[in-house]
Design brief:
Blueprint (H helix, E strand, L loop, with lengths): L1 H18 L9 H28 L8 H19 L5 H17 L21 H31 L4 E4 L9 H4 L12 E3 H11 L1 H7 L2 H21 L2 H17 L9 H8 L2
Antiparallel strand pairs: 1-2
Length: 273
């Protein structure tokens, strides 16, 4: 009877030990020899990648004169419709007559020409499109190659390292994401491996790069300015632009003018009565 009781006690002790969560004690040197090197390499690589993207980005190309003239005449019509009340009737009527006649005639529509003097049939023949595609390919390569090298470096030298424990609880669904490379079923979810720290750094260091390199926003704006005219040239065909001009000419023709300076003295006196 006593032997049976001892067996039951030993079995319960084994079950309690098996159900307990494994607790680790990390070497403090891991922060200096694993965590900080990975973080420093990721930050420096991100800064160098942004500088490389600045160097390989294509320069801002000037627009043809006919395209600028086309855009400016359409802008003049929109400004006249929006701010026409700031000028007197004579000035408004002069601008109205001139812009309505000019836009309706389609005189300043930018029509792309080929060597034979005919309109270009395929907008993708524009060399600017090829330059934009080449620039995009260079940017993808400049981002893909360093990440591949760093991932190989982390996986080769720091595979199996556990670096830190997160101070907040998580569900088991985060185990695969935070403990990549550590095949331990009973390890707490809050422990983070070296490879998982690399992936977290890849996804979460963009705000740090934006703080360290203030030129990031300017580079994105310059790339958008470089690519937007090319896309607009392909999407806005001369027939579409001509129809937009005729629509603006119709709006100007039927626009009713009311000057803000009419009876201004009476209105001011009524305000201070």
């Amino acid at each position: 009877m006593l032997d049976l009781w001892n067996v039951l006690l030993s079995g319960s002790a084994i079950t309690a030990a098996a159900g307990a969560v494994a607790e680790l004690t990390l070497d403090p040197q891991l922060k200096y020899w694993v965590l900080l090197p990975i973080s420093a390499v990721m930050i420096l690589t991100g800064i160098l990648r942004q500088q490389d993207s600045t160097l390989i980005a294509p320069g801002v190309k000037g627009q043809p004169r006919v395209k600028l003239t086309e855009a400016q005449y359409m802008m003049k019509a929109q400004i006249l419709l929006g701010n026409g009340s700031n000028i007197n009737d004579e000035s408004f009527n002069q601008r109205k007559e001139y812009l309505a006649k000019t836009l309706a005639s389609g005189k300043y529509v930018a029509r792309p020409k080929t060597e034979n003097g005919k309109e270009a049939a395929n907008p993708f023949n524009d060399p600017g499109t090829a330059d934009a595609m080449m620039s995009m390919a260079k940017g993808n390569m400049a981002s893909f190659i360093p990440q591949t090298i760093i991932m190989w470096w982390v996986n080769h030298f720091f595979a199996g390292f556990v670096l830190m424990k997160l101070p907040f609880p998580l569900t088991l669904r985060f185990k695969e994401m935070l403990q990549s490379g550590v095949m331990t079923a009973d390890l707490d979810v809050r422990w983070v491996s070296a490879i998982s720290w690399y992936f977290i750094s890849v996804l979460g260091l963009n705000p740090v790069f934006n703080l360290l390199t203030s030129e990031n926003t300017d580079n994105q704006l310059s790339m958008m300015q470089t690519q937007t005219p090319q896309g607009s040239e392909m999407m806005s065909q001369p027939a579409q632009v001509e129809s937009q001009m005729k629509s603006l000419a119709n709006d100007i023709t039927i626009a009713q003018h009311e000057c803000c300076f009419d009876n201004v003295e009476t209105r001011v006196l009524n305000m201070y009565k």
